[in-house]
Amino acid sequence: MKIVVLDGYTLNPGDLNWDQFKQLGDFEVYDRTPPDKLIERIKETTAVLTNKVALPKNIISQLPGLKYIGVLATGFNVIDLEAASTAGIVVSNVPAYGTASVSQLTFSLLLHMVQNVSEHAASVKAGQWSGNPDFSYQITPQIELAGKTLGIIGFGQIGQSVARIGRAFEMNIIFYNPSRKKEVHDARQVELDELLSESDVISINCPLTEKNIGFINKTTLQKMKPSAFLINTSRGQLINEKDLAEALNNEWIAGAGIDVLSVEPPPLDNPLITAKNCHITPHIAWATAEARTRLMKASYENLVAFINGKPQNVVNALK
Q: Rounded to an integer, what distance in angstroms lies between the CA atom of residue 295 and that of residue 301?
C-alpha cells in the first residue's frame, strides 16, 4: 500500500513523528503540496491523508487506484464527497480531537477583548505606570463576564465545552442549534434571532454547510447589541467578511475575535485585517501539541481500521 500525506507540516512541524504510519506501507510525507504537483504525487497512491489540500471531482476522477482519503481534521469540506462515493473511496475524518483547545482559544480571544492584558502589560514595560500619578489606570475598559449572556451557535461537543467554561465565569448560557437538544442543564435553547439580540458574547461553533455560508452578515450583525463581541473559531466562510468589517468600523458591535478566515492565508486586502477592534489569530485553535498528538493518533487508527476492512469515522456513503 502506498500512503501519501499531502500537507503534513502544520500537523507535525517537527515535534511529533510519523513512525507508526511507516509500518503500514510505502509511506511518504510532503510538508506542502502545490496544485501543480498534486496529481504527480498521488497518481499511484492507495491512501491519501490531507488537511487543507483539496480533492475535488476533477482530481478524484484521475485517481483510479485511490481507495481511502483520511482528512487530518474534523471539517471535510475540502473533499468532494459525492465524487469520492461514486469512485468507491472511503473518506474518514477525526472528530472531537480539538475540543478542549478550540474552547480554550475561544476564551483567550474573549478575555483579550474584555481586558486587553497584553496592551496593559506593554504600557507598564514602557514606563507608563511608573510615571502615572495614580496607583491604577485603564487603557481600555475592563469588563466583567459574570452575569453576561453567552450565546453559542452550534451546540455540539465544542459548543458544549464553551458553555461549561462560560458557566465557570458565571455567565448565562443560551444557544442556537438546528436540531433540538434534550436534557441540557444550565443552558437555554433559543432561535437565532433571539440569540443575536440577547447575547453579550456570541461564539460560533457550528460546522460549515451549504445552508449557512455567510449567515453572519449585515442583516444578522445589525440584530446584535452595540456592546456585543463576536468570536469565530469554526470556519471563516460562515461570516461575510466585508459586512463584519463594516459592522466593526461603524461600531455596530464592540469587537470580534477571529481565528479563521474565508481564504487562508488571507490576501492583504481582506477587510478584517484592518477593521476596527478586530483581533485575528492565524487558525491556531486546533494547534496545541496535545490536540495535534490526538489528531495524529486518531488518523493512524482510522487508517488501520480501513486496512482491516472496518473503516471508522466515515463521512461519506459508498455507492
A: 10
Q: Which three cell numbers stand for residue 42?
A: 498521488
CA dist 186 and 313 (Å) reads 30
Closest CA to 292 of 7, 96, 46, 11: 11
- Cβ-count burial 7-36 (b if 16+ within 10 Å, e if not): bbebbbeeeeebeebeeeeebbbbeebeee
Cα distance between residue 68 and residue 88, in whole Å: 9
- Distance, in Å, from the CA atom of 221 to the CA atom of 223, rounded to the nearest integer, reads 5
Q: Active-site residue among 241, 279, 283, 294?
A: 283
CA–CA dist 315, 75 (Å, integer): 10
- Average pLDDT in the chain: 96
| 188 a catalytic residue | no
**Which residue is catalytic, options 198, 235, 241, 292?**
235
Q: Max Cα separation, the chain?
A: 74
The catalytic residue among 82, 170, 264, 290 is 264
Low-confidence ranges of the chain (pLDDT < 70): none
264 carries an active-site annotation: yes
- What is the rounded CA–CA span in Å between residue 20 and residue 208? 32
The whole-angstrom separation of Cα 55 and Cα 80 is 6
Residue 235 appears among annotated catalytic residues:
yes
Model confidence, pTM = 0.93
Whole-angstrom distance, CA of residue 203 vs CA of residue 169: 15
DSSP state string for 212-264: TTT-BSHHHHTTS-TT-EEEE-S-GGGB-HHHHHHHHHTTSSSEEEES--SSS
The DSSP secondary-structure symbol of 82 reads H
pLDDT score for 132? 96
